[in-house]
């Protein structure tokens, strides 16, 4: 009985050391206007990364066409999403110890002078315990961490 209690206690301690982080992305109104000024959906690529150096140095085109070759072993996983205007989504939930960084690439209809790429540490998530969240907002000026 004492061994079972110790095993449960160790398991509880280990599970409390890491947190689950939700990655939330808000797409505000008129963030992605096409040539006819229609508010169209965005394509967003969300990366789970071990390190951000290669992501930060890579161009948008390199990431779109050759993400595996460019990011190499720094890439844990990625997901490509469509986000409608005035919509918000939770891209995924990750364990902060397994995924130290999140990178986001936004593909706009018109890419003039917009911030298309951003990254954040999962340790920087707001919240407590299992309710930690990394929040990003996409506006007409680009993407930003909020």
Q: What features would you describe in this structure?
A:
With 146 residues, the protein is α+β, with helices and mostly antiparallel strands. It has one domain (19-145): Immunoglobulin-like, CATH 2.60.40.4150. Helix content is 23%, strand content 40%. The protein has three helices and eight strands. The strands form two sheets. A four-stranded mixed sheet has the order 4-1-7-8, with no helix packed on it. It is globular, with a radius of gyration of 18 Å. The chain starts with a helix and ends with a strand. The relative contact order is 0.25. The mean pLDDT is 87. This is Type VI secretion system lipoprotein TssJ. Keywords: Lipoprotein, Signal. It comes from Campylobacter lari. Residues 1-23 form the signal peptide. Pfam families: T6SS-SciN.
